[in-house]
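Is this the right way to post structure tokens for a design question? Let me know if I should format differently. Anyway, here goes:
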């Protein structure tokens, strides 16, 4: 399987957090809600912190605490597994699973414009995980380059309408949420 070359053609399914065990296993934090996405013989691409990408194939897998433990073919020792720590486990966008109606890949939100009612907040530049139950939308408004971006929880309670085709996320945000991100004036 050849690696796709176009940027933006990758979907991150998980991130390797640490080595796990003595036979080359790794513990990964999942970034997908698609049930049974990981399976034996699944081919993935591991994007290392240095930007290098290598193909890996799942030999075995099992849940452990809040992680998924993965054993890859050809990775037999802790030393073999160490270069994978911090790597994003990715699929080519063309190979991602079909979703049921009403579901959206969070990666498809990048580039969408966020509105609070009729007010345009800005464009989503990233989606971050691990800060709470809901992923955080990292949103930068026009002319906000020098300031910190807004971090808006992508919570169902705030979501009014999602239109990925039109690149719009319409929300009803609690009063004061955006001000939490505003730097204090001296």
């Amino acid at each position: 399987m050849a690696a796709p070359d176009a940027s933006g053609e990758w979907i991150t399914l998980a991130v390797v957090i640490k080595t796990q065990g003595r036979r080359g296993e790794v513990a990964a934090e999942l970034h997908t809600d698609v049930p049974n996405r990981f399976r034996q013989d699944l081919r993935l691409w591991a994007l290392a912190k240095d930007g290098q990408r290598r193909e890996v194939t799942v030999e075995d897998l099992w849940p452990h605490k809040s992680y998924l433990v993965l054993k890859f073919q050809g990775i037999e020792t802790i030393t073999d597994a160490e270069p994978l720590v911090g790597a994003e486990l990715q699929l080519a966008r063309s190979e991602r699973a079909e979703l049921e109606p009403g579901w959206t890949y969070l990666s498809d939100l990048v580039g969408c414009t966020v509105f609070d009612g009729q007010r345009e907040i800005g464009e989503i530049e990233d989606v971050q995980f691990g800060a709470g139950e809901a992923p955080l939308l990292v949103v930068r408004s026009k002319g906000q380059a020098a300031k910190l971006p807004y971090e808006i929880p992508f919570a169902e309670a705030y979501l009014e309408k999602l239109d990925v085709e039109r690149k719009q996320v319409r929300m009803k945000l609690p009063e004061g949420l955006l001000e939490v991100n505003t730097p204090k004036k001296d």
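Format looks fine. Someone answered above. Worth noting: The chain has a mean pLDDT of 86. Residues 10-95 form a domain with the Elongation Factor Tu (Ef-tu); domain 3 fold (CATH 2.40.30.60).
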